From TrEMBL:
Gene3D superfamilies in UniProt: Cytochrome P450 (1.10.630.10)
Protein family (similarity comment): Belongs to the cytochrome P450 family.
Source organism of this protein record: Archangium minus
Identification of the protein by name: Cytochrome P450
Keyword NAD: no
Pfam families: p450
Amino acid sequence: MRQEAPLVRLFDPNLNIPVWVATRYKDVVDLVRDPRFTKDMRKIPDGSPSKLRRIDSMEVINRHMLSSDPPDHTRLRTIVSKAFTPRRVEELRPRVTAITYELLDAAKARGEVDLLDAFAFPLPITVIAELLGVPVEDREQFRDWTTTIINPPVNGDLGPIQQAGMQFIQYFQGLLARRRAEPRDDLLTALMAAEEQGDRLSPQELISMLFLLLVAGHETTVNLIGNGVWALLQNPEQMERLRANPALIESAVEEMLRYRSPVETTTQRWATQDIEFRGQVIPAGESVQGSLLAANHDPEQFPEPEKFDIAREPNRHVAFGFGIHFCLGAPLARLEGAIAINLLLERMPRLRLAVEPSQLRWRDGILVHGLQRLPVAF
């Protein structure tokens, strides 16, 4: 597609709607910066297929900054941005390190584990749950809901997605009621204070924000760790290079993000009018996505893109998106990935796959890019 049809109109068989996909690095960057496309579903022209397929009951968790345009986007992002500054994230380093040690100790005692279940998932979900002030013991519930909501519907059936969304909403409504009675020093209480100021965060925006932070706060890091370890196991000379020189971890994490991006495509944008883009006309109301994974393998931007090189420089990948919607939690994901992978290599000198590589399976859907399981032995 990148070579022969860099902007192509495909058809989503699950939602029964057309979707345009851009695959070249420059096109993806230009697309996400183009203000003619909206992230706000309310701005889609009436009668368009995309609008007809929306789930009204899910709107309460879709009023977050990733589904907004300026000025709403600017207001919403400003409210939470202070919790994710590089300085605030660095303060989390001791806690992230402690959780990593705990999880690795438990995994090592078992000798063989699914690295996703035993390590890559519990680490970031514990960190974001503690940061938000959400009970960590509910993490398996969050995982089930998240997996259902972000995966494509089966045979176009939106029922399971709708049910998981409603359960998520009801959970947070109950949690917010308890927290109003007993405020704490956490991000959840801070966001509630913003809601109570009235003009900064509506009740609907509050629940949407919690949904986004909880989902995005762990899903990307799960796949950064899983895909990163998979890439190292596929390239043992690079794994030994990193083990011998842990100082390479920052550039190694960037290459893991580029090589097997945890998020495969941008979230949807819609044409607010008939829009000419790269010589083609995208009709009003039709959706468009940029393939982050394809952009990160564009040979025009990355020499030898299929080569996994933990010291690649420069490495201006778009794994975290680009422009005003650049991932707010990128500093946290990078910190978690760096600590997790360096300590894993240090503590597990005999780390190896516990199955044949051909047995590994990638998750369904084109939004999240990650393995279903990653069985490893120590």
